[in-house]
Every structure is written in structure tokens, then in C-alpha cells.
Amino acid sequence: MSEPSAAAAPVANPAARLLLALAAVAVAFAAADTYVVVMALPDMMTAGGLGLDELQRAAPIVSGFLLGYVAVLPLVGRIADIRGRRPVLVGSLVLFAVGSVVTAAADGLTVMVVGRFLQGVGGGGLVPATLALVADLWPPRRRGVPLGIVGAVQELGSVLGPLYGAAVLAVGDWRAIFWLNCAVALVLAAAIAASGRMLALSHERGSDERGSDERGAGAGSPGERGAGAGSPGRDVLGAALAVLAVMGLALAIGQPDRVRNDVELGTLLLPLVAESRWTTPVALATYALAAAFVARQLTARRPLIAVRTWPATVRAVDLVGAALLGLALGCVIVTFASADPEQSVVSPNAPLLLGAAAVATAAFVVRQRTAAAPLIPRRTLRQRPAWGALVVSLFVGAALIAALVDVPFFARLTEHRGSQLAAALVLVEFLVAIPVGAVVGGYATRRVRPAWIAGAGMALACGCFVAMAGWDGDALAHVSSAVVLALAGLGFGLAVAPVNAALLDATPDETHGVASALVVVARMVGMLVGISVLTSWGLRAYYDAVDRIPPLSEVCPGSATACKAYNAELVDAGIVQLSTVFAGAAVCAGLAAVAAVLLLDVPRRRTKDAATRERPSGS
User: 0.85 exceeded by the pTM?
Assistant: First the structure.
């Protein structure tokens, strides 16, 4: 690619800051949606034809989102490198909106899972495109703060998600959450498209001021290219066709009672073939509108979607490699996401799934070595900090999930047995510190090497998990527990920006999108594997503790049922389980700290070279 180094870019102008702010809001919104399902899941299970006692069958509602979020992420990141960041941001938001419509209108589990999968693909695509956008618009020494802000808003989404879901459910049903998701996503997509045009104009003015010599040097950074040439036009007819097609899709899937029971309008929802909702007049009209939209995009002078450029993108992207890597990741996700920790670390189908993952991984490695343009360009992970960031993210994810899942569990078991809300608020003491740490860590990268910041942050988290492993039944009654949780969250937050900064500084500018995608994938895989392994380890300790409890007749002679002493013994066994999980999380956090110090440290010569590249830009 004939793109100048992003390191040589000047400090981002107001238009760039606006674009990043909108992208960060979109990332926070998508992150919040990840946790919204926690509040809406019981109602979604009922709508999907499941009873509240069939939680295991409802797992695809969650794992479908994770599958879309993780498995397709490397492909989306590579497209962001080739097509530019802004088109991927807009496209991801539109896909997220479509997935929201499908989910909101679903009346069965299958359609619901498809909608959640589309939401996962759209929501996941926002993260690598935004991280790469930071690298495009800020030089290395100035990236820490914007990277910290992006990390902060992403973690803030985990705090706001359940609150957002609860607020919507207080005034509407679960479908309202996803209808609102659609509206917000489309507004953000339109705003990002408009800000991209503003950024393109600002770069054009800057190019005019710098002179024709610099204009001829190249096409601009990926972020600039995505905001400049090829920006979408104001295709009003195309927009109208798209809106009508989405409305038709919602009617075809949802078939609202008010329309279906109407004498005249109800005929639009009567199947014409095989009693299928996909053959109703509304569905056929939707197909026609979708075809008309595609035709419009192929013929319009300034289309909303540059469909005519897609063949070139397909030729530049290794779809075979993306399919192989997606299959491998998908098998790993299903293996651990569908496991019952009380029975096994992995799914009952683990031999088949992991075998398929191994074959797909081997085929992907061969494809990487033989393809003319592999999915992950061969220079991407050559530097130690680049692949080291993936290792650190893997262990960070494994440690983080222990806090997210088991801190509320500990609260329900001990201090807040009758209140799910109170137990969730204990977790907030941990979560609110992560965004703070992310911003502080971003600022710190201006003075301290990323490796030392990330290492210190994860060492702090490790120490806090060690303290949590020693908690007893009344630990949450003391202020010290809140301090420990806050310091743990701060430690995790401190690692966010430095890990991303080390990755972006160690990878070529034209691969920042796919590299950012891989670091997100590593963290998510770490979370999935971590929760399965640590929970199984904890349950083994729990069963051992239960086996050591004397029989009920010895603990409470003369009592055949109720026995406070025996129940207290069971609670103590539960605390043993959680202490074991926290101890395992401490090991994972400690490994992350060691890996950060050893693997993320950028050689001094490279740091000087980056500083030299920055000087001509006046930064």
C-alpha cells in the first residue's frame, strides 16, 4: 500500500476528535448490549418457547452473540485495513441495527440466535476499527490517552449495560431494548458518516496548505482514506429503499397481532407457499425492496454503500483463510461456552469440536504460508510486542472473567443472599475503577514504557485476587473489601491502553485493523477458557469441602431438615469454591504481569525511531 506512516500524522484535529468520540460512543453502546441480555434473558427465553428451567437450551442466545463477535473479527479487521476505518464503523453499526431488528421481531429461538449473531458481528467490528483509527490519527507518543478513553468507554458499557436493560424493561418489554438498539445504531452510523466527510474536508484543506508535493506522496492513512474518497453520498432514494426493506423484514419476522388479526392487512401475512412466513406477500415485497436497493447502489453516482468496490475488496481479502480461522475460533467458542462446569470443563461434544478446530487451525497455518495475500499479513506479528500483546490479553481475559462472574456470586452467598441487585452493586465497585485505570494508564504511556504500566497494573490485580482468595463470610461487611475491588479494577484498567499501544507500535500501519482484532479475540478466548477452567477447578474444591462435612445427624442431632449449622457448613464450602477461583485468577493475572514486562517492552532503538518520525509533524 502506498500509505504514509501513521506515525508521521499530525496530532488529530477537531474533526478527527469528533469522529473518534462517535466511534467510542458506538463501542460503549455495543459493549452495553453485551450485558443487556442478562436482564432480558428470562423474557427472551419465554418468547423463544423455553421454560425458565431450560437455561442450558437458552445458551445459544449468549453464545450466538459471542460467535459473531469473535469468529468474524479478524476478517472485519482486515477489511478495515483495506477499505478504511470509517466504512467499517458505519457498516458494523448498520449490521448491528439489522441484527437488532431480527432479534426484536423474533418469535422463535432460531431467529433470535441469528439476530444475536448479526449483532455480535456488528458490535465486534467496532472495536478493531476504532483502535486502528486511533493509530491513524495520533502519533505513537500521543496514542495512549485516546486508547485509554476507548478502553474506558468500552468497560463503562459493562457497567451501564444492565442498568440500561433494567431502565427499558421498567417501561417496556424486552423487544423494546432491541428496537431502541436499532434506532441508536442508525443514528450513530449517520453521524459517523457525516463526521467522515468533515474529516475528509479538513484533510483536503490541510493538503492544500502543505502543497502539491505532499499531496502526491500517497493516498493518506487508512483512516483518512476511509473518510475521504469514496465517502457515501446523500442517496435519498437508496436510504428510503433500505428503510422500507428493514421495515418489511421486521413485519415478515415479527407478524404483529394487530396486523395479523386485521381483516384486510392480515392477508399480507398469509403464506403463499408451504405455510412459511418467508413466502408471505410482505416477505416477497421485502425481497423486491432489497433487490431494488442493491440495484440502486450499483447504479447511483454517489451510493450509500460502495457496492461496486466490493469485488476488489474480496480479491484483496483472503476469504478462505478467514473461513478457516473463523471455523477454528467458532469451535473453540462452542466447546467452552456450551459446557456445564458442574459436569466438565468442556462441552460433551468437545472431542469433535476441538478436533475440527485443530484441523481448521492447521489448514489456516498452511493457508497463511501459501496465500499470496494472507488474512494476517506475514509482517503483522513478527515483532515480539505484537504477539506478546496477544499472550497478555489471553491471560487478562482469563483473570477478568473470574471477577465479573464470581464477585456477585460471592456477594449472594454471603452478605446479600436475598438481593440480586445488591450483589450486582458489589461488582460495580470493581467495574467503575476500570475506566479510571484505563485513562490513567493512557496518560502514563507518555512518560513510562507500556510494558511496565501493564505489568504493574496486572501485578496489582494479582495482589488483589490473592486478598480476595482469603475472604471469609463477613468480608464484604468491611470497607477493605471495597478498596480491594476498586484496586483490582484499577489494575485491569491500567493494562488496557499500554497493551493496545504496544501492539499498534509494533505492527505495520497497514495491518493495524487485523492486529487490533486479534488482540480482542485473544481476550475473549481467554475469558471463555478461563471461566470454564476456573469454575471447574472451584467446583472440585467445593465437592471436596462438602465431602468433609459431617452428616446432618452429627451436625444437628434430632433435626431431619432445617439446620443452621449444616447450612453454614455448606456456605463455607461455597466460599472455598470461590476462594479457589480467585486464587486461580491471581495466577492468571500474575502470568499476565510477567508476560507484559517480558514481551511488551519495545527496544530502545525502535522508540527513538518512532520519536524521530514524529518530529517533522510538530508533535
Answer: no
